[in-house]
C-alpha cells in the first residue's frame, strides 16, 4: 500500500491544496497517482504464451475459454463444427487460430453475442467474412441495439430470442447452450450462457474474479439489475467455472460470493454516508446559493466517507481496489438517490 501525497482539494480561504477530512490515502479521480497498489496473486491467471498471444483453458465436455489475458470468450466444440461466444477485437485474428487448435479444420458455424458492446463482439464482422453463412444468435434487445448502431463490425444477429427468463436452447451438433436473459443489467440484452455438460456459465461484464469491478459497477446500465443478477446467479446455475469476459482466469462460485459481499458493503457504505453527511457544511455563504455547487460538495464528502469506510476491509482483497473505488462509491450513491434505497 503505497503512501501518497494528497493534493487534490483547494481551500478557498488559503489557496492550499488539501484532502477532505478523513480521506483514505487513495488518489481520487482526476488526481495523478504515481503508485498504484500491486495486483494480488488471486487476480492473476496462468501466463499467456507471448508468441501465440492467447491461452486456451479446457473446461471439459468440449467447452473452452480463450483469453489474451484481459478479455475472455468461449468456444464450444460440437459434432458439426464450432460455436463461438463473443469475438473481442483484442483477441481478433487469434480467434481463428484458437478454433483451429481446438478442432483443426472444423468450421465455425455459430456465433453467440453475450451483449452488444464493441469491445466484446467487435471482431464479429471479420469472423463472418471468414466464415460465410455463420449463424449469429443474440437476445432481441441486443438485436435492437445493433440495428440502431448500424456498425459493420457487429453484424445483425440472424436468429434472436425474446423475453425475460424464457431460456432459449441453442442446439448444434449434439451440444446445447442454454441462453437466458434475466432483464436489464450491465446492458439491456446481456445474457447468461449455460453449458450444462461442462457446468460452465458465461456471464460477461458483471463479475470480475478477484478484481474490483470495472469503473461505475462496470458502466452498469441498470445497477439494481446488476445487484439482482449477482445475488441470484449461484442459486440459479450449478456451475463450477465462470467465463466472466474479463481478467486472466476463469471465475468460481467463491468469486461471485466475494463480489456480492463487496457490493453489499458498498451499498451499505454509500447509504450510511448519504445519511450522515450534511449538505452545505463548511461552504462559503455565497456558494450555498448555488445548488449544483452544494450537491457537488455534498457528493464529494459522501464519496470520501464511503471510500474511507470500505478501504480497510477490501483494499487487500480485490486487485485494483484503489483504481476504481471512488467511481464505485459515486455510482452507488447516485443509484441510491435515483433508483431508490433498497437492494
Ligand atoms: Zn459490456
TrEMBL record:
<dbReference type="GO" id="GO:0017001">
    <property type="term" value="P:antibiotic catabolic process"/>
</dbReference>
<comment type="similarity">
    <text>Belongs to the metallo-beta-lactamase superfamily. Class-B beta-lactamase family.</text>
</comment>
<protein>
    <recommendedName>
        <fullName>Metallo-beta-lactamase domain-containing protein</fullName>
    </recommendedName>
</protein>
<feature type="domain" description="Metallo-beta-lactamase">
    <location>
        <begin position="70"/>
        <end position="246"/>
    </location>
</feature>
<dbReference type="InterPro" id="IPR001279">
    <property type="entry name" value="Metallo-B-lactamas"/>
</dbReference>
<dbReference type="InterPro" id="IPR050855">
    <property type="entry name" value="NDM-1-like"/>
</dbReference>
<dbReference type="InterPro" id="IPR036866">
    <property type="entry name" value="RibonucZ/Hydroxyglut_hydro"/>
</dbReference>
<dbReference type="Pfam" id="PF00753">
    <property type="entry name" value="Lactamase_B"/>
</dbReference>
Amino acid at each position: 500500500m503505497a503512501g501518497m501525497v494528497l493534493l487534490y482539494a483547494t481551500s478557498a480561504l488559503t489557496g492550499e491544496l488539501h484532502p477532505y477530512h478523513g480521506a483514505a490515502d487513495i488518489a481520487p479521480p482526476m488526481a495523478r497517482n504515481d503508485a498504484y497498489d500491486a495486483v494480488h496473486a488471486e487476480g492473476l491467471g496462468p501466463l499467456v504464451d507471448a508468441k501465440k498471444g492467447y491461452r486456451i483453458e479446457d473446461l471439459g465436455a468440449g467447452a473452452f475459454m480463450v483469453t489474451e489475458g484481459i478479455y475472455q470468450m468461449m468456444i464450444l466444440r460440437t459434432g458439426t463444427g464450432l460455436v463461438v461466444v463473443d469475438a473481442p477485437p483484442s483477441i481478433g485474428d487469434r480467434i481463428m487460430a484458437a478454433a483451429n487448435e481446438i478442432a483443426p479444420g472444423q468450421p465455425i458455424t455459430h456465433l453467440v453475442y453475450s451483449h452488444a458492446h464493441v469491445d466484446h463482439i467487435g471482431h464479429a464482422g471479420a469472423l463472418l467474412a471468414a466464415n460465410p453463412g455463420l449463424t449469429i444468435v443474440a437476445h432481441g434487445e441486443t438485436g435492437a441495439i445493433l440495428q440502431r448502431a448500424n456498425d459493420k463490425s457487429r453484424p445483425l444477429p440472424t436468429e434472436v430470442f425474446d423475453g425475460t427468463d424464457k431460456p432459449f436452447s441453442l442446439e448444434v451438433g449434439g451440444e446445447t447452450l442454454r441462453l437466458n436473459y434475466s432483464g436489464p443489467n450491465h446492458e439491456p440484452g446481456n445474457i447468461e450462457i449455460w453449458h450444462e455438460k461442462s457446468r460452465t456459465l458465461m456471464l460477461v461484464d458483471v463479475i470480475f474474479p478477484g478484481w474490483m469491478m470495472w469503473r461505475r459497477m462496470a458502466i452498469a446500465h441498470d445497477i439494481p439489475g446488476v445487484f439482482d443478477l449477482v445475488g441470484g446467479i449461484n442459486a440459479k446455475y450449478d456451475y463450477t467455472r465462470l467465463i466472466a469476459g474479463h481478467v486472466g482466469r476463469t471465475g468460481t462460485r467463491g468469486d461471485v460470493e466475494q463480489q456480492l459481499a463487496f457490493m453489499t458493503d458498498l451499498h451499505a457504505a454509500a447509504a450510511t454516508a448519504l445519511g450522515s453527511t450534511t449538505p452545505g457544511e463548511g461552504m462559503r455563504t455565497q456558494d450555498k446559493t448555488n445548488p449544483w455547487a452544494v450537491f457537488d460538495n455534498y457528493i464529494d464528502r459522501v464519496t470520501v466517507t464511503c471510500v474511507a469506510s470500505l478501504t480497510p476491509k477490501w483494499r487487500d482483497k480485490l486487485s485494483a481496489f484503489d483504481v476504481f473505488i471512488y467511481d464505485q462509491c459515486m455510482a452507488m450513491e447516485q443509484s441510491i438517490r435515483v433508483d431508490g434505497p433498497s437492494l
